[in-house]
Backbone:
């Protein structure tokens, strides 16, 4: 545990002097002159003295592509290099942050048997979801096989795709809990569709196996099947895949719900899972897992860190919150180590943690022009009308629909129903006179990008540390997804000590 605590403390030491960059909002960039307080002085000096801003940015892209660049003069590249040291991928070790291969090795060391590759079901799911379901179901199947789990409970099961595949392909009985009735009802319908789909794909597999002897399609046998189904090919799937509409809290008696769903079954070594358990549902999942003896293993991937409630800082939306929900603890922090420090991040910082650095840096998906428009609009509006910070002006994704700043301002003023005339000359001058600030904003955006995985590391490590503090040493952070496809790519995997296991 000391290792995790030390890593967390190192992350905090790095984040603290840079916190203004991630705790501020881009909307206020111009109004509050945020470049003065958020961009480190060496970087700011370099921008101000460099003959070409474009070359500075090119150098950053180039350095990211090449990987480790030593002897760079670019302060921006150096910033990224330091931040990189605190990403979960850089912190990987054999102990508490491991790769998916390392996890499978550990499971095989504990007799999980063969790791079975899951099918990729394309129909009814986005490409991203079908990829996530394929990978996650394979991990869950391996963990449940290691722990000899009779059943799986899927918290925040949503549309029920994951549970369906676990039931259909891996023969696991599942119970999906979600507070949204539309989801649980939809999940029941979809699992019927998927069952039929699955049966058909199995038949196709068999026919491919027979072709194999003629050497024609021999490669197919090693591949997981890819399935498609027509709407009319539906049958009922109700034996292995059940749904209950329920708002899960750390007090929920989920074992009883499982008994109700499967009254004739003998339940043992139950596996708790959650794919993209948004906001506080992640903390709830971990609390339930650690306190409920019938839960044997856990595979959980979080998301939407900005929706969490923190113990040591109130969100701006706190007035809408039902405080009784937090009698059993908040979404962050979970570990005693951070709770003793009364550590907090704040909503803007957590929001920054949800950015996808891979998509920005590897795919060059920078979208700073809409951010610049919005920040400049704020400055313009404040010169015309009084704006109450408690009731911010929301224009949504208007910038993507506009071909110029002038058009954007006109449409924003109309949308906000503000009562003043827009002067086009004034708008053009405002835009032209803020080009240097636009450069600063781009740098600010890059710094946020560099810090995003560091914030995520802190949030995820807090979760694993919590589990280890509860006496669960086999608790790991595992990168299970490709971050370019699925940015929230880290799972928390935990297995209770072998001695506690029943019915083996
Ligand atoms: C991001 S979605 C993920 C859905 C699904 N696991 C997937 O990956 O497609 C999160 C789901 O959790 C559900 N949820 C969030 N908090 C919950 C709670 N406390 N109890 C039950 N369901 C919850 C939401 O309704 C939503 O369907």
Residues:
């Amino acid at each position: 545990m000391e290792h995790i605590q030390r890593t967390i403390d190192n992350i905090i030491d790095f984040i603290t002097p840079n916190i203004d960059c991630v705790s501020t909002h881009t909307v206020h960039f111009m109004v509050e002159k945020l470049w003065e307080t958020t961009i480190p002085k060496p970087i700011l000096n370099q921008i101000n003295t460099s003959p070409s801003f474009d070359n500075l940015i090119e150098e950053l892209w180039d350095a990211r592509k090449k990987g480790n660049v030593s002897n760079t003069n670019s302060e921006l590249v150096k910033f990224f290099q330091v931040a990189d040291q605190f990403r979960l991928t850089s912190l990987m070790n054999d102990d508490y942050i491991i790769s998916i291969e390392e996890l499978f090795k550990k499971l095989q060391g504990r007799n999980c048997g063969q790791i079975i590759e899951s099918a990729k079901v394309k129909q009814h799911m986005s490409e991203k979801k079908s990829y996530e379901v394929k990978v996650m179901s394979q991990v869950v199947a391996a963990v449940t096989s290691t722990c000899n789990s009779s059943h799986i409970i899927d918290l925040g099961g949503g549309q029920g795709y994951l549970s369906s595949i676990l039931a259909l392909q891996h023969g696991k009985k599942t119970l999906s809990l979600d507070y949204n009735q539309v989801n649980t009802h939809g999940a029941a319908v979809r699992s019927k569709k998927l069952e039929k789909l699955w049966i058909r794909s199995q038949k196709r597999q068999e026919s491919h196996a027979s072709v194999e002897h003629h050497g024609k399609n021999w490669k197919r046998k090693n591949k997981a099947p890819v399935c498609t189904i027509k709407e009319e090919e539906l049958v009922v799937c109700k034996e292995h895949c059940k749904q209950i509409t329920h708002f899960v809290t750390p007090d929920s008696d989920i074992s009883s719900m499982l008994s109700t769903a499967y009254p004739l079954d003998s339940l043992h070594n139950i596996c708790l899972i959650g794919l993209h358990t948004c906001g506080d549902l992640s903390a709830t999942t971990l609390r339930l897992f650690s306190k409920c003896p019938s839960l044997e293993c856990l595979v959980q991937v979080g998301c939407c860190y900005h929706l969490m409630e923190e113990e040591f800082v109130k969100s701006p939306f706190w007035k809408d919150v039902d405080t009784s929900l937090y009698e059993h603890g908040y979404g962050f922090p979970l570990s005693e180590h951070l709770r003793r420090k009364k550590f907090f991040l704040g909503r803007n910082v957590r929001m920054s943690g949800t950015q996808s650095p891979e998509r920005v840096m590897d795919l060059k998906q920078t979208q700073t022009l809409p951010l610049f428009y919005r920040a400049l609009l704020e400055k313009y509006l404040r010169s015309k009308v009084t704006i109450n910070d408690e009731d911010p002006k929301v224009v949504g994704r208007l910038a993507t629909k506009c071909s110029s700043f002038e058009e954007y301002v006109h449409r924003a003023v109309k949308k906000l129903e503000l009562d003043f005339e827009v002067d086009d000359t004034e708008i053009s001058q405002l835009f032209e006179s803020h080009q240097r600030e636009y450069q600063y904003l781009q740098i600010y955006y890059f710094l946020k990008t560099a810090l995003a995985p560091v914030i995520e590391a802190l949030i995820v490590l807090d979760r694993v540390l919590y589990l280890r503090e509860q006496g669960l040493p086999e608790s790991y952070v595992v990168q299970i997804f490709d971050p370019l496809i699925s940015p929230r790519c880290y799972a928390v995997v935990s297995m209770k000590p072998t001695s506690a296991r029943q019915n083996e």
Q: What stands out?
A: The pocket of S-adenosylmethionine is lined by residues 129, 156-159, 177-180, 183, 247-248, 275-276, 278, 281, 284, 303 (CB under 6 Å). Strands lie at 97-99, 120-121, 151-155, 173-178, 226-227, 241-245, 270-278, 295-303, 475-479, 490-495.
